[in-house]
Amino acid sequence: MNASLAIQILPKVQGDEEVCRVVDEVIAYIQSTGLHCFVGPCETAVEGDFDTIMEIAKQCHLVAIKAGAPSVSSYLKISYRPEGEVLTIDKKTSKYHQ
User: Fold this and answer.
1) Within its chain, how far is the Cα of 98 from the centroid?
2) InterPro entries per the record (predicted)?
3) Which residues of 11-20 are buried (b: 16+ CB within 10 A; e: fewer)?
4) How high is the pLDDT of residue 40?
5) Domain 3-87 adopts which CATH fold?
6) What is the CA radius of gyration of the chain?
7) Does residue 45 contact residue 6 with C-beta atoms inside 8 Å?
8) How many CA atoms are closer than 13 Å to the CA of 79, on its beta-carbon side?
């Protein structure tokens, strides 16, 4: 695994419930990829190979649009190490979730 992505999707919809509904659909998509992910309060992290991670970032936007958001913005953080492994979600967070 040479890449990780932290993504925060911001659908342009009215009301907190609608934001949560659209974001929940995006999270369900990320989980359906089968890649290791971690859902946090402000972003979801997922790890895999670089091309897959980039496709997931694209698809998250399309899922939000399909879910009814007329437009969507996002914040992305991508860690990429072409010749090795990136620091995993578990290594970064396990000591805080025991």
Assistant:
1) 23
2) MTH1187/YkoF-like, Thiamine_BP, UPF0045_domain
3) bebeeeeebe
4) 95
5) Alpha-Beta Plaits (3.30.70)
6) 14
7) yes
8) 15
pLDDT tens digit sequence for 58-97: 999 999 999 999 999 999 999 999 998 999 999 999 999 8
pLDDT band at 12 (very low <50, low <70, confident <90, very high): very high
Mean pLDDT score of the chain: 96
Tokens of 26: 């995006």
Q: Which is nearest to 43 in space by CA: 96, 1, 87, 4?
A: 4
Q: Can you name the residues that pair with 37 across neighbouring β-strands?
A: 46
DSSP category for residue 84: S
pTM of the complete model beyond 0.85: yes
